[in-house]
Input
Amino acid sequence: MNHFIRNGIVSPILLRWLRMSAKHKKGLLIVLEGIDGSGKTTQARALVRRLRRRGITASFFREPTRGRWGREIKRLAVRADSLTPEGELALFVKDRRENVAKNIGPALRAGRVAVLDRYYFSTMAYQGAKGLDVGRIRRMNEAFAIAPDLVLVLDVDARAGLARIRGRKRRDELFEREDYLVRVREIFRGLKGPRFVHIDGRGDKRAIGREIWSHVAPLLK
Output
């Protein structure tokens, strides 16, 4: 956040981000992050089910989306050399803009709890691990992205994450490599602030779910 404030003056980018985020705060935006195989998709879906059982209107979204740009990312991800890091970044930003406009924003304006499987923190981690400037990626996304109320980072080591996804029919060779995921994990582990919670993703799924709920429940009040 310091790169948005100089000599006590808040940058125009941060002001726009805060104003835009405030417009959507009828609902809550909860994000789950982590490397491939960390369990975030499982926990995100479980959280949505738990919210709905309690009569809370909740929506599940994921990135990449199933929209035009998200499908293009998934199509290209099967080959390790299909995109440059800048090309990856450009596609993820296009996909995210669409997701914010068509899915996340409307859900929050309707007062829903939006649970998101990956957000721009994944772009910071994955494209940052390929040499792009993490601060630049963050500024680029926060120029339009809605600020999350809570970011839950599920932490597992790269080898354990890859072991969990070994049986998938489809593998994304562009991202699912151990040496690369080691660097991605380190960027995730460096995310700090009052909205970030880091959770050990190696344990029992139900125990992890209860820990996640312990951080979500207070926000619902």
User: Anything to note?
Assistant: The chain is about 50% helix and 15% strand.
